[in-house]
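Reopening this ticket.

The earlier resolution said the output was attached, but the attachment link was broken on my side. Pasting everything inline this time so it's all in one place.
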Amino acid sequence: MKSIYGRQFSMMAAIILTSFLLLGISFIALTYRYTISEKQDAMARNADFIAEFTSAMAASGGSLQDSSYKAYVSSIASISDIYVLICRTDGRVQLYSTGSIRDGMAAPAVPAAICDTVSESGSYSGLTDLGGIFQERRYVAGRAVVQSDFTGHTYETNLIFVAANSSSLTELWRAVATIFLFTAVVVLCVAFIGSSVTSLHQTRPMKEIADAARKFGHGEFDARVTGYEDRKDEIGELAEAFNTMAESLAKSEAKRSEFIANVSHELKTPMTTIAGFADGILDGTIPPEREKEYLKTISSETRRLSRLVRRMLDLSRLQSKENVTAQEQFDVSEVMLRVLVSLETKINARHLDVDTHLPEGPVTVWGDPDAITQVCYNLLDNAIKFSAEGTTMGIGIVTKGGKAYVSVRNTGETIPPEELALLFDRFHKSDRSRSMDREGVGLGLYIVKTILGNHKENITVTSEDGVTEFTFTLTLA
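Inline output:
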């Protein structure tokens, strides 16, 4: 698998190379054409000057062999770094500047095709050795020398050819290309180094985050990504998000471990009730005439315990917020009283009084009676545990607006306002010093909130002046 660093570096290298290649080709081609064009224009002007001067000299009766004419041609050839050839109309060379003719040529002549071109169009331009006159191909410009007779008729007397050595232009082009290539190589090296450093700067944090994630997956919950706190870019945000996630997962894992170690929190209350009533019947504490009543409670608690075990093993279903399937009509007042009776032993152990405000008739609501029993059980059990010994706890039901409002109240220490919003979080535990029971794992209220959420109902909590009250709603049937 190719790394992000490799892909990014390859992409940057390809872009830079392609850009320089296109730029280099365009620059070199433009420079080469411009240089040749400038040279050809200069040669054409020199050919025009010599042709005009030759025509004027012939009109004044001068000769090509005059020293002044030769000096003029030589001066132009020397100053312009060109070679000058003056020919007859048939191409035979009459006069040429020093060094222009190839050694060993007795009677040099320009090819007839080139002469015809000059005669027909009046000019010629091209790269040629003029039929072997030069040892190598040169840039050549040709012009015709035109004169007029006394009748005004024009005719050609001579052909002028000027040639420039192409080696100087080639050397200039090569020098420009060399400078450009050297500059391109330097820029490419700098770009590659910069791209490499930038790519490493971007990918190194990702590798560290991946290593930290692997450590986290292997149980090292203290693994964090450090060193990027001051970065304000996406890498800094990613590192911060990973650390936040790691903190959250570490806390959840710690609470989960504590929950597994203390899973009996939601199991011990029905088992304690069953054991207490059974012991009361066996040792005679419960009178024989009330044994049947308590045996019914034991039977009910046993069945509910079985259902509770299934619910605790199915917490994932509760978390998924599925709709309640067991929608039935039942009397919530009866449920509250039955739960209150099952907790009588705990209530008496803490010397609590119970203040009930229940309607005289049944309060029929829609819902899952087993689930609502669990809600009432958890709320009443919490109220007992967090009540100050010898105080009064209360339960009440009022109906309003098609809803039944069920409340459970206890008197003890006040819950801080900042903690009220956390009471229904999974695994959250209030201050243990507020309870004589030190084995809770903070699952009871989470189950209450989840069950009521599945019923599309709400629960609220208030805590002022030592009085804490939970109130939840149910839809009236």
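Reporter confirms the inline version is readable. Confidence is low (pLDDT under 50) at residues 432-441. The two ends are 63 Å apart (CA to CA).
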